[in-house]
Amino acid sequence: MNVIEKLNSIQNKEMTAKENVEHFIKVIDEKNDSINAFVEKNYEAALKQAEKIDEKIANGEKVGCLSGLVFGIKANINVEDLIVSAASKTLENYKGSYNATVIEKILEEDGIIIGLTNMDEFAAGSSTETSMYGPTENPAAMGRIPGGSSGGSAAAIAAEMCDITLGSDTGGSIRNPASHCGVIGFKPTYGLVSRQGLLDLSMSLDQIGPFANDPSGIALALNTIVDYDSSECTSLHSDIDFTSVLEEKSLEGMKIAVCNDFIEVTDDKINKVVNKAIQKLVDAGAELVEVSFDHLELCLPTYYLINYVEFFSATRKYDGRDYGYRIEEVCGDEVLRRIKMGSLISQKEYSGKYYKKALQARSLIRNEINAMLENVDLIVGPTVPKLPHKIGEELTPMEMYVYDILTVIANLGGIPAGSIKAGEVEDIPVGLQIQAKPLDDLKIIKAMSVLSNL
């Protein structure tokens, strides 16, 4: 049963919202000790909310478009009365005093929050190993990382602990773990989803998005959280119905592109699996063309320079005065590295040399990715260039950063991108990344739906 079928089942009184919550509580209690996907549980409130939804349905009252569906939320998104720690000792006692805009929208549509999911500390990582709660296991490849920084959200879906989860994506933090865990993850066009209530890593790059095991879960989540928010300065207007393409079985008239520059930096075994998935899109009617990207070597340094500076700025509020501890005194190595680098680059004598040049490079990258998309509907290719390493394996910072080389482009360009399982290499999932023009998010959902319906 996919997510939309379950929704219909609840609304048609074939199962109750409470039964759905109770099922997931049982699964979490059975699996979470070994997987460590959830770091904060919200069982009592979830059950109470489910009972209210069931009562409305029994009385024939109108219910929301998520009625009874169960959500896990990344621990850097504010949920009232839960410990919103961003997996950092800095905020280990910070209880959310309000709901982020996306949480308000989920609750308004009768979605149910069952808990908060594990992540890399302050979203600074690609493996979910830097969390103060310890690493998260990959349910699809036990012993290996689930990816990051939204690894707990991806793992919760892979382990079937809830219907939908939310993560945040700054340079691939939704798509990377979606690929490693064999689930679907989606980063919308920058500005389509309000960031109000997100503990930001890099405000000009961050975007909240959903995970699910099938396209209908992604579509239902997006229909709820994609909306204009007057309290958020980057917010865009949209009237997209993401469920409108869920039954699509053809890509006739759609032009998709592969980029050899992306293929060349990716492991050959991953490319073979990804190419088979691309062929399925061609068999469904898509026309395949080739494009080139001349500035791939610029992407990682550009992304991390901007990330360092914006993260340093964002962390100045964690000074230990209003709440939590002073971040530099309790944070982990990767967070401290980014703070120190951001502090250095922000200094007047270095700002022009590094940060301003990074902003210029970002414009160059954005222009090139938009030029690549000008005459095609989608760019398709591998999500991550290598398989996930084993938990605890020592990697240098640069070896860790390489996970992001194919995903940072979408954040630098502000374009939508998603990852869907292409297949497996050595029993480890690998993802197909699908990217589109700004505000062409629906085309990605269509391609994912066609691939799932084959």
Set down the secondary structure blueprint.
Elements: H1 3-11, H2 17-35, E1 38-41, H3 43-58, E2 70-74, H4 101-108, E3 112-117, H5 151-158, E4 164-169, H6 175-181, E5 184-187, E6 207-212, H7 215-225, E7 255-259, H8 260-264, H9 268-283, E8 287-291, H10 296-314, H11 327-330, H12 333-346, H13 348-373, E9 378-382, H14 397-401, H15 408-413, E10 417-425, E11 428-436, H16 441-453
Parallel strand pairs: 2-3, 2-4, 7-8, 7-9
Antiparallel strand pairs: 1-3, 4-6, 5-6, 5-10, 9-11, 10-11
Helix pairs in contact: 2-3, 7-16, 10-12, 10-13
Family: Belongs to the amidase family. GatA subfamily.
Domain Amidase: 19-442
EC number: 6.3.5.7
Question: Can you offer a commentary on this structure?
Answer:
- The structure is a single chain.
- With 454 residues, the chain is an alpha/beta fold.
- It has 2 domains: 3-243, Amidase signature (AS) enzymes, CATH 3.90.1300.10; 255-453, Amidase signature (AS) enzymes.
- The protein has helices at residues 3-11, 17-35, 43-58, 101-108, 151-158, 175-181, 215-225, 260-264, 268-283, 296-314, 327-330, 333-346, 348-373, 397-401, 408-413, 441-453, and strands at 38-41, 70-74, 112-117, 164-169, 184-187, 207-212, 255-259, 287-291, 378-382, 417-425, 428-436.
- An 11-stranded mixed beta sheet has the order 1-3-2-4-6-5-10-11-9-7-8, sandwiched between helices.
- Helix 2 packs antiparallel against helix 3 and helix 10 packs across helix 13 (348-373).
- The relative contact order is 0.14.
